[in-house]
Design a protein that fits this description.
The structure is a single chain. With 341 residues, this protein is α/β, with parallel strands linked by helices. The protein folds into 3 domains: 58 residues; 78 residues, no CATH class; 179 residues, 3-Layer(aba) Sandwich (Rossmann fold). The strands form 3 sheets. Strands 7-6-5-8-9-10 form a 6-stranded mixed sheet, sandwiched between helices. The chain is globular, with a radius of gyration of 30 Å. 28% of the residues are buried.
């Protein structure tokens, strides 16, 4: 019997009540179906599909998820430039694109005990008086340092228009005086090309648990590179490497290159030394950084810019000093969308 006939033969109040009940059931059914669909959609976006034996339907779907996170290696020192042993996450704040970040996902001492080190040695005419002895000292010291078995240590020289490999990955062995004397030297200075070659090498073999480092021996003057300073700086930023520069110029005759070396070190969170400090102190300071580094992770603030500038400020003890890279690219790209500071 049609429901409309029943409504017609019933009192008005009862018919109205039944009509409301029917509408409620329809709405409830629709809501239930919508909830089930929404649950299935959420599962397909974030979960993994269930597969039954003999079913090929799930093979047509690919479920992916990505997490956006900044991983920042930094160093803390007191007013005497001594490493700070006791540092808590409320002792500092990260300024990311002028936004204050204090809600960190993690804060730990650096677990990066494996190193990928590239030593760049300027062999051009301008540093020729230092080249032979400097190279011999560096290679001898590399052979003596307490490297871990999994550390990768390479040495490149640059001069004229070429970047030459002295040794790759196996530089922990000793080099003879004859081998050093046979290395080519002289000519112009392709400094920016050498930095780009080193950064690209680190990018190609980058691993999340390996710390990339560039140690540059040079006077900081470039005379012949095809790459620009901006090209080299951008590739270094993309590699995430700390750059430690060693100024081999005459201290009584400072040049524009000295400022360039300091900028490269400061921009990456490294340090700048003079050749008079000695190779032993330079390498020991680099290794000290390895064991005193901290790592903080956080969600990047929303921004349309590809490049994010970074600095770290103390919150309680204003005598604390921090070193870190000056910025990062949120998306990996060869052509940055925003000029760096």
């Amino acid at each position: 019997m049609p429901i409309t006939v029943l409504f017609a033969s019933m009192p008005t109040s009862l018919a109205t009540s039944l009509m409301r009940l029917r509408l409620s059931c329809i709405v409830l059914t629709l809501l239930l179906g919508t909830t089930i669909c929404a649950d299935n959609l959420a599962f397909s976006q974030s979960g993994q599909p269930s597969e039954e034996p003999g079913s090929n339907e799930s093979a047509n779907f690919a479920y992916r998820s990505t997490v956006s996170e900044v991983r920042l290696v930094f160093f803390a020192a007191d007013e005497n430039n001594h490493a700070v042993k006791d540092l808590h996450k409320d002792d500092f704040a990260v300024i990311d694109n002028e936004r204050v970040i204090r809600d960190f996902r993690s804060f730990t001492r650096s677990p990066l005990t494996k190193l990928d080190v590239i030593v760049l040695i300027d062999s051009s005419d301008s540093v020729l008086p230092h080249f032979r002895q400097e190279t011999a000292n560096v290679l001898h010291l590399i052979a003596q340092l307490p490297w871990n078995p999994e550390d990768n240590v390479s040495v490149l020289s640059f001069g004229d228009t070429e970047v030459r490999s002295i040794c790759t990955g196996d530089c922990r062995r000793s080099f003879s005086a004859e081998e050093v004397a046979s290395l080519p030297s002289g000519g112009a200075t392709p400094l920016f090309d050498a930095l780009e070659v080193a950064a690209n090498s680190l990018i190609q073999r980058r691993q999340p648990d390996v710390w990339p480092v560039i140690i540059l021996f040079s006077d900081g003057d470039d005379t012949v590179s095809k790459s620009s300073f901006r090209d080299a700086a951008d590739r270094i930023a993309a590699s995430g490497a700390q750059v430690y520069t060693v100024d081999v110029s005459n201290p009584s005759q400072p040049s524009n290159g000295t400022g360039m070396l300091r900028w490269l070190a400061d921009d990456s969170g490294g340090r700048c030394f003079r050749i008079g400090d000695g190779a032993a102190r330079i390498f020991n300071d680099v290794l000290d950084d390895v064991y005193s580094a901290r790592v903080v992770t956080y969600a990047p603030p929303p921004s349309a810019a590809d490049f994010h500038s970074i600095r770290i400020l103390p919150t309680h003890n204003l005598n604390l000093r921090f070193r870190c890279r000056r910025g990062y690219y949120r998306r990996s790209s060869n052509a940055p969308q925003e000029e760096r500071p």
